[in-house]
Design a protein that fits this description.
Number of strands: 12
Strand order of the largest sheet: 1-2-3-4-5-12-6-11-10-9-8-7
Helix content: 10-25%
Radius of gyration: 20 Å
Order of helices and strands: EHHEEEHEHEEHEEEHHEEH
Structural class: alpha+beta
Shape: elongated
Length: 290
């Protein structure tokens, strides 16, 4: 007798699917555990994605049972004089017996029009697959900076202010929302005020190699702003126990003390505009805390 082929379908993850998706991802990523994935899906449940895009991502089913999942973190970000939609593909896993259907799951996630897709933490062995899917690399590595060393005895005066505190100058409402929302996610959101202008910065606290405290730069208008205000920002972060800052880079950053690590955590995009360095807002680094 010949066994019948399983009924396979791909659909959006619904609220009722969350427990099954948590269990599935916990099997696929045993190093993170169920508590991590439970928290991750709770964070996605709080968000409101752009119209027509999924709340959580997509589920692969076989005869009604979940056998694969991919999370999507969708947001609307400023792009030039307008706004653009982008989606961070994150944390996808398919049970070994159903890996043949994995492209079906990924192609469904990539089917939305007028969207810039990001893959910001690809596993090294998946790089050829990502490039075959039409993704292009936009970031080659990381720069580990010691910003508190910049302008220790001078430099441009600047005031560092928490996102929730009153700001003595006019601020951009869209950037204010970014800072407030990321502070709610556990990030360090700061304004750097110089003259009559305020510059936004978001950092995510990290522990590298299980014992090195640092912060990852999540958002700024441009890397030049971080270089400019590295001293006061770095000393503010150092007082919080975060003397090192990880910055996406394509080489050493002139004007900052630190070291460039090429090939470490490259980042890819597909469609839309090429992402700029210094903008990981609403990606898995900020929302999921990976």
């Amino acid at each position: 007798m010949v066994a019948s082929a399983p009924a396979i379908r791909c659909r959006q993850i619904a609220d009722a699917d969350v427990p099954a998706v948590v269990a599935l991802l916990a099997r696929g990523f045993p190093g993170r555990g169920r508590a991590f994935w439970q928290h991750a899906l709770e964070q996605l449940a709080k968000r409101r994605p752009p119209l027509g895009l999924p709340q959580y991502g997509y589920l692969l089913e076989s005869d009604g049972e979940p056998v694969g999942a991919i999370l999507l973190i969708c947001s609307t970000m400023r792009a030039g004089d307008g706004f653009a939609v982008r989606c961070n593909l994150s944390s996808w896993y398919v049970e070994p017996a159903f890996r043949l259907y994995a492209p079906f799951l990924v192609s469904r996630a990539l089917a939305h029009k007028d969207v810039t897709y990001l893959n910001v933490s690809p596993a090294p062995h998946t790089t050829p697959i990502i490039e075959a899917q039409g993704f292009a690399r936009y970031c080659d590595g990381l720069f580990v900076a010691v910003p508190m060393l910049k302008n220790l005895f001078g430099g441009e005066p600047a005031q560092v202010i928490e996102a929730h505190e009153p700001i003595p100058v006019e601020i951009d409402t869209f950037e204010r929302e970014i800072l407030v929302k990321h502070a709610e996610l556990g990030c360090i959101s700061l304004w750097c005020v110089s003259g009559a202008r305020a510059y936004p910065f978001v950092f995510r606290p990290r522990i590298v190699k299980k014992f090195v405290p640092c912060a990852r730069l999540i958002y700024c208008r441009e890397i030049g702003d971080f270089i400019r205000f590295a001293g006061p920002l770095g000393r503010c972060l150092a007082r919080r126990g975060k003397p090192l800052v990880i910055v996406d880079a394509n080489g050493p950053i002139t004007g900052l003390a630190g070291v460039f690590r090429g090939g470490r955590m490259p980042k890819y995009f597909r469609g839309g505009e090429r992402p700029r360095l210094g903008d990981l807002a609403y990606t898995e680094f900020a929302v999921l805390g990976v």
